[in-house]
Amino acid sequence: MPLRLHSLASPARFDRFARRILPWTWVLAALLIPCGLLWGLAFSPADYQQGDTVRVMYVHVPSAWMAMACYALVALLSASFLVWKHQLAGIAALAAAPVGACFTATALVTGSLWGLPTWGTWWVWDARLTSVLVLFFLYLGYIALAGSFDDRSRGLRAASILAVVGVVNLPVIKFSVDWWNTLHQPASVLRLDGPAIHASMLWPLAITAAGFAAFFAALLVVRIRSELLAWRIEALMRRRSAGAA
Amino acid sequence: MAEFLDMGGDAATVWPAYGVTIAVLTGLLVASLRTYARRRRDLERLERTGRDNR
Prior knowledge:
Structural class of chain B: mainly alpha
Oligomer: heterodimer
Shape of chain B: rod-shaped
Distance between the termini of chain B: 67 Å
């Protein structure tokens, strides 16, 4: 019982925190995303080799970054849920996973659309593409596992273990382009000796990425609150059916 | 404008990529907000009926 009282304190603190940051994240997302996308579509230059297809980068790259960042967050929260029994952390991971899955799907689809004119194929089983597909399946596996137990906490525990184990896939994605000969190009922004792309393309990319991050934060807050409601509803129903019996 | 929409002949690559991204993110946003609203209503109803029964 003391454990449960302790874990109730955190959602209340979270709610106060959420109320403070939520308006700012929505405003940031609503300003940055249209600005970044419009810049990328209309005001950034076409590539000298790729022509206008390079504009896919402004949706593809931020999506892929968010897909990975979100997985890192899910794994971290899951570990904290498993190790310290921090229930809010587990619930937050559960709220974040579908968002990460959507970003991964977007990265995969936009990547395919970009690959067709650039590589002459929409899909190859190279290390980068395959490891990102594995990331997508990890998300789906996590979501399915979390929902496949009658007892929500047991499902969440099982899924959290999968999330933590799956974290080995993140360095594989990041370094796949260096470790193997991939059709996918190596990193051109997040590299040790600085970005290798021109400022006229880096700016819209950075703005869209910041917008996606703000959108993710706002959506995550809403989804955590929603998940907390679901757990309260279930606890209430269980108490009632126990009282009625 | 027509030139902008044509995307240097790559309209079939650029527009679907932006379309898919915006559609997926908007869909997720709408679904999340609707689920949140539904759960709030459900919880309120549950708490109300709980008080009536007591």
